[in-house]
Amino acid sequence: MPNVPRQGGFGPASEGAWSSTPYHHAAASWGAAKSVGSILFKQRELVRGTHAMFVMNHPDGYDCPGCAWPDDTKLTLDFCENGVKHVTWEMTPKRVGRDFFSQYTVAELADWTDFDLENQGRLTEPMVYDADSDHYVPISWDDAFALIGSELRALSSPHQAAFYTSGRLNNEATFLYQLMAREFGTNNLPDCSNMCHEASGRALQASIGTGKGTCDLADWEEADALFVMGVNAASNAPRMLTALADATRRGAQVVHINPLVEIGSTKTIVPHEMVDMALFKSTSVSDMNIQVRPGGDLALLRGMAKVVFEAAESDPTVLDQAFLVEHTAQFEAYRDMVAATSWAEITEQAGLPESEIRRAGGIYLAAKRTVISWCLGVTQHEHGVDSAREIVNLLLLRGNIGRPGAGPSPVRGHSNVQGNRTCGIDHRPTADFLDKLDEVCGITSPREHGLDTVTTIEGMHAGSVQVFVGMGGNFVLAAPDTAYTAAGLRKCALTVQVSTKLNRSHLVHGRKAVILPCLGRTEKDVQTAGTQGVTVEDAMSMVHISYGKRRPASPELRSEPAVIAGIAAATLPESRTPWHWYVEDYDRIREVMAKVLPGFTGFNQLIQQPGGFRIPQPARERVFQTPSGRAEFSLAPMPNVIPEDSETLVLQTMRSHDQWNTTIYSSNDRYRGVKNLRELIFLNAADMAARGLAEGDFVDITSTSRDGSVRTLPRFRALRYDLPPGSAAGYMPEMNALIGIADYSTQSDQPLMKNVQVRVRKSV
Ligand SMILES: Nc1nc2c(c(=O)[nH]1)N[C@H]1C(S)=C(S)[C@@H](COP(=O)(O)OP(=O)(O)OC[C@H]3O[C@@H](n4cnc5c(=O)[nH]c(N)nc54)[C@H](O)[C@@H]3O)O[C@H]1N2
Ligand SMILES: Nc1nc2c(c(=O)[nH]1)N[C@H]1C(S)=C(S)[C@@H](COP(=O)(O)OP(=O)(O)OC[C@H]3O[C@@H](n4cnc5c(=O)[nH]c(N)nc54)[C@H](O)[C@@H]3O)O[C@H]1N2
Ligand SMILES: [Mo]
C-alpha cells in the first residue's frame, strides 16, 4: 500500500480540489445517466457497451457480474448505473501483458494506487514471480499448474493450504473447487461470506433451518410493508430501487432503518425508466427513515415486538396464534423476555425515542404481509447473528414467513455469493453434505472444520498456512487489519491468484507467486463440446444460466473451471475424478452436482426453463429443519452498544457510490455529495464541535482493538454529516487498516467492519 496519505485514498491519483455539498436530486436520476455515458466513454466502449447492456440479465445473455439482486424477468431492460460500470470495467480494451510486467518491478508497482493497478486492463497470460529480478515473468499454463501441484504436494498436511473464494465464482467452478480442496484433504475454504453474510446464514439456520432468506421478488411485490435495514440500496443494490418505488406506488409502506439517511431511502427515479429520467419524475421510496444508533437494530426490533405484545393485550388476533402454536418454539419465553425489557433500555440502546419505535411498530401491525430485508449494517457487528434472529422473531409473531408477500430477505452482495455456499464453499460443512459428496464423487472428505478468513490470516502468521489460493477477489485489501494480513501473505511459501485484473493481492505475495488470468462473466467460454454456459444463484435462490458473449480478452485466458481442473490434476495425480473430462462439457459437472446438491435433481433440464429455477426451500413451505422441527425464537440478551466513554466513536466502514468493494472507480461519492475525496471521516456536528474541528480539518483516527493493540490512520479529513452522535463513517478498504485481527464477532466470526471503536483528534 502506498504509505503516503492521499485525499483520493486507493482511488485515482489525479484529482482536483475536494468538495462536499449535500445531494438534492433523486437516486438513479440524471447523474446516473450521465455517469453511465462517461464510463462507457472513458472505457472507449460506447457502442459495444450499449449492446452488452441489452443482453445483460436476459435469458440467453449473461448475468450481471455485479450484485446479487434478482433479475426482473418482466423488464426488457434490467440494468443499473453500477452494473454498467461493473461490466464495462471487465470489458475494457486495455491489457496487461508481459511487456507491462517486464517494465516494472513489483516494488515499483507497489507504489501505484489500486486504481492504477486495475486500470491497466485485463490480465492476458499466466505469470510467475521471479525473486531475482523482482518481476513477474511469463509461465506456461502447464508449468504453472505443475508448480502449484508440487508446492501443494510438498506440504506436510493438506490443512497447510487455504482456498479462498470471492463471490463471483460460478456454480460449476465452485463445485469443482470445493471438490478439489476436499479430495486434497481440507475444509480450509475461507470466502468473502466470512466478511459479509456469515451472520445471516448462521441466524437463519438456527431460527428456521435454512441458511437463506425465504422471499422472492414476487413476495417483494406483494408485501404491504417493507423494512430495509442497513442497506445502501442506491449504490449497492440499485435495481432494488425498482421494487421500492413500485411498493410506494401501490401504497405499501417502506421503512428504512439506517444511521445515515441514504439517498435510496428517500426518492428515486426507477433505474430502467428512461423516460422518467428525462422528465426528472421521481418516485418516493420511503414512508419512514429511522436513524438508529449503530448496532442498535436489535433494540429497535425488540421495541417493535413490545408494541406487538402490547397490542395483543387488547386484540389477541394481532399475533398469529395458530402459526405460533403449530410451528414455533420458545414463544412464551420470548414474550416474557420482551415484557421484562424496559422501554428505557430499548430507547437508550436503539438511540431512538419511544414514539418513533412505536410508529415503526404500528406500521408492522398495520401490514398483513411484511418483508424485512437487511445487509451489512446488520451483519458486521458483534451481535450480527442475534440481530438477524431478532428480525425473524418479529416476523414469526405475525406468521410473516412461508406465505406470499412475507419473510426474511437478506440482500446478498456478490452476484454468486449465495450459490458458492449452496455448491459447497463452507469451512463448516454439514456431515450430510460431505456424506453425499463422498458417495457420489468417490472421495473421502475430511470431517474437521476448516479455516475461515480470519483464522486463515492467523494461520499464515503461525506458519500453519503455507499456500494461499485466491479464486478471484482481492484478499489483502478486503480482509481486516491490512498490515497484518499483508505480512501473513508474505510469509506464505506460495500464493496463487486467479484474477481478471491486476490488484494489490498480486503485489503482496508469498515467496513464490503465480497469477492465473481467467475469463470474465461477459466472455464466451468455448470448450471441446462447444460454447458453455455457467449458472449463478441470486439473493432469492433463483438459479439460472449465463452465457458470455464477447471474445475473450486474450486467447490465453482459461475459464475458471478449466483453471481449477488444471490445478487439481497437477496436485492429485492419483485422483480418479475426471477433471479434464468435466471441463470438456459443463453439463457433466452439472450432472454430478444434481446428485450431490439437494434440490438440483434434473439440473441440466431445469436451467433450460426461461428464468431458471428456484431451489426448493422447506422453510418457505413452513417446514423448519431445526432440531425441534419448529421455527425457534431466539432469546438473546440485548447487547450494550454504547461505548464506555464519550471520547470513543463507533466507526462504520462502507462503500462509496463509485466503487465495487476493493475496486475504486473514482474518488467521488455522488449521493453523499463528496468529490475527489476518500480519505475522510463523516462525523456528527456535535462530535466535530466537541473536538474543535472545522469542516475539512485533518484528523488522526486511532482504533483500540480488543487485544489492546492500537492502530492509527493519519490525516483523514473530517466532514460534517447527518449521523447519530457518537458514531462515524468512512470508506472500506482504506479504513481496513484500523480493524484489528482480534476484532471479529464471537457469534459469526465476522470482522467488526461496522463497529470499529475509534478516537478522532485534530492532526498536528
Ligand atoms: N456498486 C456496488 N454494489 C455492491 C457492492 C459495491 O461495492 N459496489 N458490494 C456488494 C457486496 S459484496 C455487498 S455485501 C453489498 C453491500 O451492501 P451494503 O450493506 O449497502 O454496503 P455498505 O456500503 O457497507 O453499507 C452499509 C449500510 O449499512 C448502514 N449501517 C451501518 N451501520 C449500521 C447499523 O448499525 N444499523 C443499520 N441499520 N445500518 C447500518 C450504512 O449506513 C450503509 O447504508 O453490496 C453489493 N453491491
Ligand atoms: N472494512 C470493510 N471491509 C470489507 C467490507 C466492509 O464493509 N468493510 N466488506 C466485505 C465484503 S461484504 C466482501 S464481499 C469483501 C469482498 O472481497 P473480495 O471479493 O475478495 O474483493 P473484490 O474487491 O470484490 O475483488 C475484486 C477483484 O476480483 C477480481 N475479479 C473480478 N472479476 C472476476 C472474475 O470474474 N473472476 C475472477 N477469478 N476474478 C475476478 C479482479 O481481479 C478484482 O481485482 O470485502 C469485505 N471487506
Ligand atoms: Mo459482500
From TrEMBL:
GO cellular component: membrane
Entry cofactors: Mo-bis(molybdopterin guanine dinucleotide); [4Fe-4S] cluster
Domain (Molybdopterin oxidoreductase) ranges: 122-497
Signal peptide: none
UniProt keyword Calcium present: no
UniProt GO molecular function: 4 iron, 4 sulfur cluster binding; formate dehydrogenase (NAD+) activity; molybdenum ion binding; molybdopterin cofactor binding
One Pfam short name: Molydop_binding
Keywords assigned by UniProt, alphabetized: 4Fe-4S, Iron, Iron-sulfur, Metal-binding, Molybdenum, Oxidoreductase
Location of the Molybdopterin dinucleotide-binding domain: 649-754
Family that this chain belongs to: Belongs to the prokaryotic molybdopterin-containing oxidoreductase family.
UniProt name for this protein: Formate dehydrogenase
Organism expressing this protein natively: Mycobacteroides immunogenum
